Amino acid sequence: MSAPSSPPASAVVFAYHDVGVRCLAVLLAHGVRVPLVLTHEDAPGENIWFESVSRLAGAYGIQAIAPEDPNAPQVLERIGALAPDFIFSFYYRRMLGPRLLAAAQRGAFNMHGSLLPKYRGRAPVNWAVLHGERETGATLHEMVAKPDAGRIAGQQAVPILPNDTAREVFDKVTVAAEITLDRALPRILAGTAELRAQDFARGSYFGGRRPEDGRIDWTRSARAVHDLVRAVAPPYPGAFSFIGGQELRILRTLDLGERQDPGAGPALLARAGRLCVRCADGGLLRVLDAEFGNAPLTANLFRAAFGTEEVALND
Prior knowledge:
single chain, alpha/beta, Rossmann fold, Methionyl-tRNA Fmet Formyltransferase, Chain A, domain 2, seven-stranded antiparallel beta sheet, 28% strand, elongated
């Protein structure tokens, strides 16, 4: 007579965004019982370009709630009554306090969008692109009181190509998160995971970003301007400057390594039917997508609007 099988592990899941959707799907594929999902209401005015955790939970008959404060006493009481084996956080936007983490009988784990200990904190993909990194990834780690500081259970790297936007990199990181969790989860469930402490001396921490952080500093090099444009390209708010008091939004650029005389100064150019910007170091960026005064801007429209093929950029 065979021994009775043990019941499946249970987990309360805090999740949002594409990473939340894909990682919740991984838990369910591995047979983890999820009695409750906590997510966020979509913020009014936010550009919702990502998948819905609530929709996925509903498809599986899992109750999803969106409390304003996950650490509120009534939420703690509800989760404590469930006595989950694990708590998982997948791109949930609020910190989970020590009392909440302690409700997990066998551990609490978070998925972070960088190769920890690098880029701990907020908006890790955007910061990595902004700094010209050639690699990032996803890290599954233990949750402790300090954000993004727990021991590492798994990682997966992805490349950042020179003209990738943050959205394109985020899509890679979403797949990396799925791979990381799928690979690490069997050992976590079995209690055999080997966890590795982070070396914070090799790491970095960054805060959140605001739309106004996308303002272009035309004293910077072409590479620095290009990296800013990539880091905040739509669906993020976009990089911007001003010409004659009207907003110029530069939404996508291509760096082909072309150069002009740096003494000529930063300028917006129409060259051979293409829109370009010349930066402080003389580097030229091809502008693939731009708006001026809330309308699309092309080389032909630029010439028609300004009556010239070059306008200085010094705001």
